[in-house]
Specification:
binds adenosine-5'-triphosphate, 8 helices, globular, about 35% helix, single chain, alpha/beta, Rossmann fold, 3-stranded antiparallel sheet
C-alpha cells in the first residue's frame, strides 16, 4: 500500500498534513507491527487500509480481488443483545462452515458461547473479537492496539493466543502498537513511523522465530532499537 498524502481538515486549526509518502507491502503470512508515537497516524493508516477512509492520495492493493480482510480494534465492538457465538457468527459469509469448536477452544471460550458481552471481562471480550476476526479465515488481519489496557498477565496470554492462531492459519498480520516490547515479542518485522506529517522512519526485520527469543535476546533488541530510533521510540 502507498499513501502519498493524507490530510485532515479541522475547524479550529485548518488543514493538517498527517501522512506523507508512507509505502510498504506485506509478505504473505508475515507478522508486522506498526509502531510510532501517539497521534502520528497509525490508526489513520489502518483505516485507509481497511477502506474506512478513502479521502487520501495513494493506493491500497489487497492481495487479491476476493481477499478476506478482518480487523480487531481496541474496543471489542460486540453487539450487547447477541451471545458470544451469535456475535462471532454475524461476521460469517453466507454458507460458511467454519470450525468454531476448535476456534472457541483455542481461545478458551468454549464455556462462554451462550454468554452475553456484559457478562465478560475486557480480556474475554477481546478474545471474542479475535474469534470473530479469525472465524472468517482472513487472508489479512489488521489489529489496532488489541491488548491495550489489559493487565500484563492477560495481555501475555492474549499475545500467546494470537501467535498460535497466526501460526496455525497462515494469515498476514499487521498490528498497530505503541508497546515496543510487545512488538518485539510478536512480530517478524517492525515498521516505524514518525514525524508530522508522519513517514516511514524504520523497516526492521526480526528473523529469529518468536519462540526462540530469550529475555536476553529481547533486551539486546530493545536496547539496539532504542539507540537507533530514539525519537520514534521514546514516547
Ligand atoms: N477525523 C479526524 N479529524 C481530524 N483530525 C483527525 C481525525 N482522525 C485523526 N485525526 C488526527 O490525525 C492525527 C493522527 O491520528 P491517529 O489516530 O491516526 O494517530 P495514532 O498514531 O493512531 O494515535 P494513538 O497512538 O494515540 O492512537 C492526530 O493528530 C489526530 O488528532
Amino acid at each position: 500500500m502507498r499513501i502519498d498524502a493524507k490530510d485532515f481538515d479541522r475547524v479550529e486549526s485548518g488543514r493538517i498534513a498527517v501522512l506523507r509518502d508512507l509505502a510498504f507491502s506485506l509478505e504473505p503470512g508475515s507478522f508486522t507491527c506498526l509502531i510510532g508515537p501517539s497521534g502520528c497516524g497509525k490508526t489513520t493508516t489502518l483505516r485507509i487500509m481497511l477502506g474506512l477512509d478513502r479521502d487520501f492520495r495513494g493506493e491500497v492493493r489487497p492481495p487479491s480481488h476476493d481477499a478476506r480482510i478482518a480487523a480487531v480494534f481496541q474496543e471489542p465492538r460486540l453487539l450487547p443483545w447477541r451471545t458470544v457465538e451469535q456475535n462471532v457468527r454475524l461476521a460469517l459469509p453466507k454458507n460458511a462452515t467454519p470450525d468454531l469448536d476448535t476456534l472457541f477452544e483455542t481461545l478458551g471460550l468454549s464455556s462462554m458461547r451462550s454468554s452475553y458481552p456484559e457478562e465478560l471481562s475486557l480480556g474475554l471480550a477481546r478474545r471474542v473479537a479475535l474469534a470473530r476476526a479469525f472465524a472468517i479465515d482472513p487472508d489479512v488481519l489488521l489489529l489496532d492496539e488489541p491488548f491495550v489496557s489489559l493487565d500484563e498477565a492477560t495481555a501475555k496470554r492474549m499475545r500467546a493466543l494470537l501467535l498460535r492462531l497466526w501460526r496455525g492459519r497462515g494469515v498476514t498480520v499487521l498490528m498497530v502498537t505503541h508497546n515496543v516490547r510487545e512488538a518485539v515479542a510478536l512480530a517478524d518485522r517492525l515498521l516505524l513511523i514518525d514525524g508530522r506529517p508522519a513517514h516511514l522512519t524504520g523497516d526492521v526485520p526480526l528473523p529469529l522465530p518468536q519462540e526462540m527469543r530469550t529475555p536476553e535476546h529481547m533486551a539486546t533488541l530493545l536496547d539496539d532499537l532504542g539507540k537507533t530510533y530514539p525519537d520514534t521510540l521514546q514516547s
